[in-house]
Write a structure and sequence with these properties.
CATH architecture of the largest domain: Sandwich
Order of helices and strands: EEEEEEEEEEEEEEEEEEEEEEEEEEEHH
Low-confidence stretches: 1-24, 73-88, 102-111
Mean pLDDT: 78
CATH topology of the largest domain: Immunoglobulin-like
Number of domains: 3
Radius of gyration: 48 Å
Number of strands: 27
Strand content: 35-45%
CATH class of the largest domain: Mainly Beta
Number of helices: 2
Distance between the termini: 124 Å
Largest sheet: 6 strands, mixed
Length: 344
């Protein structure tokens, strides 16, 4: 239950001396109680209490008007002053309102009526602190499409609105103001593996607000797939000692750039070359000695996942044809060598 009080301080004195009020003296304090600049509604109930604990019956205001009457010192009227004289604190209490100001009045000899206007304001508790964040404070591996939500209530049952602060810095910016729902859906997907900070401020319809704590969470790691197995294109034969160019090509399912590493088949390997856009033929060159070889290539994306090795690509580097031609010319010029070879 809302409990609201208005305090009025009544000090009984003349100059520096306290007055003895006679039994024949009748006194009244009266005036208008205002709420928000307007007279309090008729039927608003208040009660008058002295600081010694004695109190009046409930008083119904009439369009804001109130009147307190007493006769001193014999307690013969409806409103007694304890002891008849002294300094007294008078409290006007209400179950619906709280004081906006206090009034001090002076009781003078021979004056029986005192006009005192009072102001009240509606009592209001601020909203409870926002709580139960979802995702929970400190959560990890949060979906990048997560909708944020929270709990909040008002002890007076007042309707609430919310300001949402959200971002990847420790002092998140305001991203939504005055919303009535207890959820917030960040526009678009959040970044992968990023720590976000968020905070809720709750407002009631009477101007009170409560700021919640700053909560944090971290989003999930981005899904990653390795590049597809590369293919090789290039000549299948050549001359020993001559550098030849071969082309590798692969596609990365996630669109990542890729590096290539070559196994030239002669116990030598290239460094990781790149990165290059996937789906494009990328050249690399090498020279071999005489013989047959199987070359391979593999790919790696920029996040470190590697493909399997390509299928072997066989190549041959035969003996130089110039040597063969010189041998046949020697046989042509020396027929007896040809006959000798046939005898062997």
């Amino acid at each position: 239950m809302k409990k609201l009080l208005v305090s009025v301080i009544m000090i009984l004195f003349v100059g520096a001396g306290i007055i003895q009020v006679s039994a024949e003296t009748f006194h009244s304090v009266y005036g208008t109680v205002y709420i928000g600049g307007n007279p309090a509604p008729s039927g608003t109930e208040v009660k008058i209490t002295f600081d010694d604990g004695s109190e009046s019956d409930i008083i119904d205001l009439d369009n804001g008007y109130y009147q307190i009457d007493w006769q001193s010192p014999n307690n013969e009227h409806e409103w007694p002053i304890p002891g008849g004289v002294g300094d007294f604190t008078v409290i006007i209490g209400s179950s619906e309102y709280i004081p906006d100001d206090n009034k001090t009045i002076k009781i003078y000899s021979g004056i029986t009526g005192y006009s005192v206007n009072l102001s009240l304001e509606i009592f209001n508790n601020p909203p409870n602190a926002p709580s139960n964040p979802n995702p929970s404070n400190g959560a990890n591996n949060v979906d990048t499409n997560k909708t944020l939500s929270w709990s909040c209530s008002d002890p007076d049952g007042d309707p609430l609105t919310y300001d949402v602060y959200f971002g990847n810095g420790t002092s998140p910016p305001l991203v939504s103001s005055g919303q009535t729902t207890r959820s917030y859906d960040p526009p678009g997907a959040m970044n992968y593996y990023t720590t976000y900070y968020w905070q809720i401020v709750a407002h009631d319809d009477k101007g009170a607000s409560t700021t919640g704590p700053i909560w944090i969470f971290t989003t999930e790691l981005e899904a990653n797939n390795p590049p597809d197995k590369p293919t090789i294109d290039g000549p299948i034969t050549g001359k020993p000692g001559v550098e030849y160019t071969y082309y590798a090509n692969t596609t990365d399912p996630d669109g990542d750039q890729v590096f290539y590493k070559w196994d030239w088949g002669d116990n030598s390997y290239s460094e990781w070359l790149g990165p290059y856009n996937s789906g494009i033929e990328i050249p690399a060159s090498h020279a071999w000695s005489q013989g047959s070889f199987e070359i391979r290539v593999k790919a790696k994306d920029t996040r470190g996942l590697e493909s399997e090795w390509s299928d072997p690509f066989p190549i041959t580097m035969p003996r130089d044809k110039i040597i063969n031609n010189l041998f046949f010319r020697l046989l042509e010029n020396h027929p007896f060598l040809y006959q000798l070879l046939q005898l062997l």
